[in-house]
Amino acid sequence: MQEFTQEQISALSAFVDSTRFSTGQSNRELHLSDESAHRGTLPAGIVWPVSTEEVSKILSWAYAQDIPVTPWGAGTSTEGNPVPTLGGLVMDMTQMDKIIKIRPQDLQVDVQPGVLRKELNRQCGQFGLFFPPDPGADASIGGMIANNASGVQTVKYGATKDYVMKLTVVLPQGEVIQTGCKAHKSSSGYDLSRLFVGSEGTLGVVTEATLRLTGIPSHHLAATITFDALQDASKAVAVMIGSGIEPAALELLPPQLIQLMNREKDLGLPEVPTLFCEFHGISKATLQEVESLARELCEDCGATGFRSGVQESERKDLWRARHEAYETIHRAHPGTQPIIVDAAVPISHYPEMIVFSQELVDENDAVGYVFGHAGDGNLHVVLMGDPENEQEWSTMEDINHRVVTRAVELGGTCTGEHGVGIGKRKFMQMEHGRSYQLMRQIKELIDPKGLLNPGKIFL
Ligand SMILES: Cc1cc2nc3c(=O)[nH]c(=O)nc-3n(C[C@H](O)[C@H](O)[C@H](O)COP(=O)(O)OP(=O)(O)OC[C@H]3O[C@@H](n4cnc5c(N)ncnc54)[C@H](O)[C@@H]3O)c2cc1C
């Protein structure tokens, strides 16, 4: 559905201010793709709602008219998650960006979904609090909830699902519901908040969320640990996590990526397999104990260097470089598009997965960088190539397929954090078996016409 009739435009204008609805070509094109190479079908129009009531009216009208609706956060997904596949209406949530109330006494905050995570943390920081899930991009809270986003600190603090307490959700036909509560614990029936977290906007539109916050740690210790072989570095990850040491971040980087980062950010790091590691604690003394155990374990795994005591400004530079790794890779390969492989395995299989993935890249002579949130058993292979070059692109897709299949065979998942979107649909049956059928039944129950974010999660 790529064009609205004049009648439909007039109907929508009756309950949405004309400044917040557009059928202009440039707005439609801006909502055609996310950060992946997946392209959708040009939407007929974009609407920017400002309240739960308005979202409800729009959804109920669109449902009656058989118009597909795709929610849109900040558009930073990497699997085509917010890309409209059937045109229709894109519901851009960026104007619902209020931090309604920070309640430091409860360690909670009530927000609208369009709030960006960096702004949320800036404001919560004034109370010594923060919202830990940290995808590299400045994502919206609604998009993070819908994708169950996580990031470098998930190894210690958990993913978005661990911070969602209560949601206001508008269902596809316009009904408004509340899920969860503001109490720290509850065993009251099905956990519906968890159903909406990770549902990628296919079951409802989140219009308000109560999130848990946590205290900003008083002491940090960062270290860079170098190895001769990627396998030794990934083994050290499994050993450290297995020892009960709780890093706040534990990232694996290959020499090829360090090389790009050095070139772009002048970091001066040795260009060898490296772990970026950070610990958070209540005192210097506890961190020093943790550090000496980490050093011992890494040396046992073959570490050739362990540099700790990284100063605040250098620590920030390292994490900024890590957060910008995707952009750095993009800039190093102009004119290409990425396939970002995202998979996760139980930690004991991490070394095997890393070696398997690197060998695939090497054997196929592909442009690919194997790295990841190692402490979570989460790996990425960022493959760069030209979608117009059939052979190159199909090699990249084959690598994606083989890495994901191996991860699932090892008891892991086809997506550690980026969600299913369009790109991972083909792996869902393999990963979930009969449960995939149940997911489909849930979708059919809540959205019988299949109009909310169609073409995602399900083939
Ligand atoms: C450089 C870079 C680094 C990244 N690193 C990470 C990382 O480390 N970890 C990680 O998890 N992700 C990462 N991502 C992916 C991405 O940032 C996250 O998935 C993020 O959560 C997407 O949020 P968004 O606001 O951009 O949502 P969008 O991409 O706009 O939408 C995401 C999904 O949410 C739905 N949606 C949006 N708003 C709502 C709403 N209010 N109600 C219901 N559904 C809604 C959309 O329909 C879509 O399905 C990275 C992306 C980039 C570009």
What does it look like?
It is a single chain. The protein is α+β, with helices and mostly antiparallel strands. 36% of the residues lie in helices and 20% in strands. It contains 16 helices and 18 strands. It has helices at residues 6-13, 25-30, 52-64, 117-125, 141-147, 154-157, 192-196, 230-242, 255-265, 284-300, 312-323, 325-332, 350-363, 390-409, 428-432, 434-446; strands at 21-22, 45-47, 69-72, 89-92, 99-103, 108-111, 129-130, 164-170, 176-180, 205-212, 214-215, 219-227, 249-253, 274-281, 303-307, 337-344, 367-371, 378-385. The strands form 5 sheets. It has a 5-stranded antiparallel β-sheet. Strands 1-2-4-3 form a 4-stranded mixed β-sheet, with helices on one face. It has a 4-stranded antiparallel β-sheet with strand order 13-14-12-15. Strand 5 and strand 6 (108-111) form a beta hairpin. The longest helix has 20 residues, at 390-409. The chain starts with 5 loop residues before the first helix and ends in a 13-residue tail after the last helix. 46% of the residues are buried. The model has no long low-confidence stretch (mean pLDDT 96). Flavin-adenine dinucleotide is lined by residues 34-35, 70-78, 81-82, 93, 113, 135-137, 139-140, 142-144, 146-147, 149-151, 200-201, 205-206, 326, 417-418, 453.
Q: What is the first-to-last residue Cα distance?
A: 19 Å
Give average pLDDT, whole number: 96
Number of helices: 16
Low-confidence stretches are none
Largest sheet: 5 strands, antiparallel
The percentage of residues in β strands lies in 15-25%
The molecules bound to the chains, other than polymers, are: flavin-adenine dinucleotide
CA-based gyration radius: 22 Å
Q: Please provide the count of β strands.
A: 18
Write down the overall geometry: globular
Biggest sheet: strands side by side, in what order? 5-6-10-8-9
- Structural class call reads alpha+beta
The percentage helix is: 25-40%
